[in-house]
Amino acid sequence: TMLGIVDYMVDGPIDFKEHANFWILILTTLFIAAGGNIINDYFDLRADRINRPESVVIGKHFKRRWAIVLHWIFNVIGIVGGIYFLWYYGTWGILIIHFISTAVLWWYSVWLKKIPLVGNIVIASLIVLVIFMTTFYLSYGFEYWRYDQSDINFGSLHLMKLDVIFWFSVIGFILNLAREIIKDAEDIKGDKAIHAKTIPMIIGTVNTIRLVGLMMLIYPAIYLTGIFLHIDSVELQKLWPLTLAAFVCLIGIAPLLFPSDGWIVTIKQALKLAMVLGILYLFL
Questions:
Q1: Residue 100, number of CB atoms within 10 A of its CB
Q2: What is the reported pTM?
Q3: Which among 56, 57, 63, 276 is placed 20 to 30 Å from 234, CA to CA?
Q4: Distance between CA 173 and CA 222 in Å, rounded?
């Protein structure tokens, strides 16, 4: 996602120094995400033994105390990366984002995921925060923004591309939120074991599937509205990944008409595919 945003937003050559700094940003972000996954697995061990025993790593392949050690090592690497950007660019933004992310991922693992909908919103928001952080970095990380258009068109082109990234973030939030909710429908037994209270526990699995199906239809609605409003300016030949993603999300109609537990796996895979297609568009 981060590479796609840069490829989409920046035209022209980028010098090696900025390439290096951007890779540092990507790696520190990955370390924080990895640390969050480890601590979540640590606190989810009891639930995972029920929901997916074949994928349990902690306690099987390495000891629980090593999970805590790795969690802190990865977080420290992420925070040090934020300190580096504070020193290099003189801005606190990335350090604050990294710090907030590590803290929120800890609280999510310990407490927030047990609160109905709150945990789902937190994870979806952190994914959007990655998009925001990348655009924030671009305002400091590149000395020149190069476009094929003349300088007189710079402002409008800049705003147009940020507008697309904004809607990319909105859709990314909705699809990731839907995926987090449908995953909870699959994990009810384990979540009960750790005393979590999720949306499927409150409204039932069938109603959850209906809700997620409805959420999936939001993206095709936004996409078709955007095409209708900007039909004279969009490059339709480059929109095929977004068009395919919209068709994939139309699967959401099926669980609305014929709701059943059997749709869970199909919906999960459809959401994954739609997100991959959305990211692919950024590179065209």
A1: 12
A2: 0.89
A3: 276
A4: 13
| 6 close to 22: Cβ distance less than 8 angstroms | yes
Residue 146 DSSP SS3? strand
Calpha distance 274→280 (Å, rounded): 10
Going by C-alpha positions, the residue among 121, 86, 117, 101 that lies closest to residue 36 is 101
Angle between helices 16-43 and 93-110 (to 10 degrees): 20
Percent of residues in the chain assigned helix, strand, coil, to nearest 5: 80, 0, 20
Distance CA 56, CA 42 (A): 10
C-alpha 40/C-alpha 71 separation (Å) is 10
Contact 59, 45 (CB under 8 A): yes
Assess contact for 80 and 24: CB atoms under 8 A.
no
Cα–Cα dist 180/175, whole Å? 9
In tens, the pLDDT along 73-131 reads 999 999 999 999 999 988 899 999 999 999 999 999 999 999 999 999 999 999 999 99
Per DSSP, what are the bridge partners of residue 184?
none
Mean pLDDT of 150-157: 40
Within the chain, what is the greatest distance between any pair of CA atoms?
61
In the three-class reduction of DSSP (H, G, I as helix; E, B as strand; rest coil), residue 58 is classed as strand
Reduce the secondary structure of 98-115 to three states and give it as a string.
Answer: HHHHHHHHHHHHHCHHHC
Q: Per-residue DSSP letters for 10-47? A: -BS---HHHHHHHHHHHHHHHHHHHHHHHHHHHHTHHH
Sign of the torsion formed by the C-alpha atoms of 144, 149, 153 and 157: negative
CA distance 138 to 5: 10
CB atoms within 10 A of CB 148: 8
The answer to whether 238 touches 284, Cβ cutoff 8 Å, is: yes
Q: How many CB atoms lie within 10 A of CB 238?
A: 10
